[in-house]
Model the fold of this input.
Amino acid sequence: MSDKKITKSRFWFEEHEVETISEVPNKKIKPWASDAKLDVVGKPISRIDGPDKVSGRAKYTFDRLLPDTAIAKTLRCPFPHARIKKIDFSKALKLPGVLAVITNEDAPSIPWFHESTLFDSHARYQGDEIACVAAENEAIAEAALKLIDVEYEKLAFVSSAAQGMKNNTPKLYDSGNIHHGKPTIYQRGDAVSGFKEADVIVEDTFTTQCAVHNPLEPHGSLVKWDSDHLTVWDSTQSVFGVRGKVAESLGIPENNVRIIKQYMGGGFGSKLEAGKYTVMAALLAKKLKRPVKIVMDRQEMNLAMGNRPDSTQTIKAGVKKDGTISALSQKSFGAAGAYPSGTGTSWPLRSMYQCPNIYTEEYTVFINAGPGRPFRAPGHVQGTFAFESLLEQAAAKIKMDPLEFRIKNYAEIDQVGNVPYTSKRLRECYELGAKAIGWNKRNKIAGSGKGSIRHGIGMASQIWWGGGGPPAKATMKLTADGQLQVFSGTQDLGTGSYTFIAMVAAEVLEIPMDKIKVVLGDTEICPYAPGSGGSVTAPSVSPAIRDAAEQMKYKLLSFAAVLSHEPIENMRYKNGVITSVNMSSTKYKIEDLVGKLSEKEIVTHGDREANPEGMAIQTFGAQFADVDVDMDTGKIKVNRMVAAHDIGRMLNRKLLENQFHGGIIQGMSFALLEERVIDNNTGKVLSTNLHDYKIPTIADIPEIEVIIASDSDPKISNTGVKGIGEPAIIPTAGAIANAVYNAIGVQVKDLPMTPDKVLKALGNA
Amino acid sequence: MNTFEYLQPKSIDEAQNNFNEKSRLFAGGTDVLGLLKDHIESPEKLINLKNIPGLDKIEYVQGSGLKIGSMVKISAIAQHPLIREKYTVLAEAAESVASPQLRNVGTLGGNLCQRPRCWYFRGDFPCLRKDGGECFAVDGENKYHCIIGGEACYIVHPSDTAVALLALDAKIKISSNGKIKEVPVNDFFILPGDDILRENILQPGEVVTEVFIPEPKANMVSRYLKFTERGSWDFAIVSVAAVIEKSVNTIQNARIVWGGVAPKPWQDLEFNKNLQGLKISEDILKKVTSTLFEKAEPLEHNGYKVPLVKNLTKKILLQIA
Done:
């Protein structure tokens, strides 16, 4: 049962298909049946880290401090584009309490981002790292930054992707501002002839803004050297990812680096990779022979810690009178910022609905602004808004109910890979969601309502990967006191990993949750698990936990069989007690069994199995929005959101609702509020704090209903779980936009849909 | 933040005697701390007014009016039963300020004397209001800027309570060199054309001590309507304060004041006059508001504030009727 094999497996992480080679179980554990009656898994159990968090005991990276820790702050380029001519930090070093300064002149030249280095004399955006200071405290470090004299040669800059698309604009790289010098093209069938088959063609351009992750807990690290070993407490979504990058940057073996992350205040993708700050802190700590802590402030968060690239998407759809989509095309571009980042938005168009003829052409453009990073369903949030908005136009044009139109073009198989889905319950999502929102109460003709407050209902569909895959590992240790420890190198971003892991173990071993201790986010003591992005954590890790727990159960049964001189088939396991079907006197509590062993522990090691070959694993869903639009002010009020999704097996109803609420609120905020604003005249960012960068308050939050249309997807893994982190946010902006259209009869094609734009769309401003 | 000396005087005299040109008065601090952290102001001396007795009282004298000390918390104004009943517009304006946390710390005096929120002024831009060389908003990102009253600088005044107080015909008491002077709210605030470096008439060392609001007429009703992009903790895109004396549904006297549109709380005396004697109805209000802000000169991105002014004014007058 515990035999392993090395195999290849494929799965999607964010927008990339990855092929892994890893050790997986030789014999797959039989998946829980779709209708299996589970005792723990699926139940609304409160998160086990809840008491720590509400009492303030939980230690986030931000809270950690070691004796004798120096505080580091970063000097960042104040201009959008500049070359450093000279740095003089002698005055800073003279300030009492300043311990060290590192710059491009004395730090090792460590490759980072594309053609640049850790400290690059060519600063490509306002926020690029120029120097890093360590001091006795934060105030001194900040004061020291002001004493560093930097002579810059200011360079002409590019402040928008539209500008960067033109010839003769200032260049960030010698090779030009379009990444790879050419667009990314995808084709299926023949779009040109597909459009000829159409009875109706709709085409329009939609734009989405640059949005910033702004997790509650800022990025930051605490680092400490012990001889040539480095320990890093980091606010990260990927302890193993950070370990690799930090070790490589410092030129030391990975085993000399230990990354620890216990609790975290959100990530959303910006914390998937190692930050320059971690390496800068490590260099300073080495120099000082003291621990160094570095934490970003809110301005740095808004300038330099990543963003969701903006987009300009021109989409065309050819539709037959009966509603069949005959062709789709998309030409789009987006601003990567100063360093490479994916800006593609066409995946929903390629994969959401049945369509034989597709052409997409996408440009990633470098501009002098903060680098883009994966942000909760990269590309899909922007793409779904634009694509689903255009489909709304198409449905109106052929006078078809928008939901009926989508069902008409339901994709039965994955057309990108031309393979079947492991499961797809989108029809059920449509049905349940439409019922819950009251779809029949929508305006049959958009904008046909009366009065100064117009009511509208709209929807959008969602597709995403989120199936996970190997490698993801867990080690389990059962001790003679009946306590179970579970170790896995995944991490809990605040999403509830600690809890679902304990639940899966409790389900298999039938022991109470409070006997289970879960240890995550430590590269030194936990076996490998992937970075927590791409909605892969639960679908990758939960089967490994089950694998380890089933092995534990098997070992216990075998041991009991040996002790009672009976075949293992006669042994029965229930609630942590093993009995024999034949001998009523045979009864072993699992802790007693472990106690009989000299080592006083049983250890097992579980792995995520390989994904099925020749099948596509996708999550699906549909969200429905109910909105009011004030015709006098242009204000959109989202009254209610219904989210109906196919996410395989639900692990925990409470955690699931948490994630959906977060995703929908973030999606609504993207639709209505958030925007990074750059001043085009100076190339500088104006929205560098949480007053000017508007995230929603409790007063803005709609009522949210979450419906799960799936029971399980046993083809994926032994737990049948798909991810939910990203599906939750993908269709929200599209659903709201379509509800707004239903209310007022015109589309707002530019996110965020702020009152000024709504008034303009209405012809009132 | 730069280092500074921190004083906690026990009297206004002591505060003023210690004041020099590098000093900064400090009330609730919700704005001043931000100004210091963002290096918009770098005073050498911070003079906290909190320990001066007598500035945190609300006192009503029947037949005369209401006195509110400058150190009264915004939340205390919002919750005060008499203010809610008799000076509804002020209670509503106070309630619309920022967030509950900020209202529990921020004071009336501080709210009136807060600096503008223009993101160029608050950011790393050497703008005219910081004695720099240019206004970056005039041809920059100006969707939140003023549509009237701007001259070289296009800030809007951020205070909600100021808008309500002007509509209530309030007066502001200022302690100046041991003397008390009293000025109408409208004369307290100034335009960039008067002095681009300040938003009000306060001279260095002068302290706002109290606001006086006259007794309302028995037939007075008042409301405050604030329009923001976000549900809470946001400054006004446009706000309207309406103080109306009416008989049945006819307006006898009206004082309408707008926030979010100009560098100071803005009123249009002619409009107030035009409202006199009008019967409140949707059609009539639509007509009288249609010509509002004809003299406005919107910038590239803030023209939408003009229809907002008209629609919100109509809305508040309908609500009040």
Q: What stands out?
A: The first helix of chain A runs from residue 50 to 55. The domain at 64-155+216-266+271-304 of chain A is CATH 3.30.365.10 (Aldehyde Oxidoreductase; domain 4).
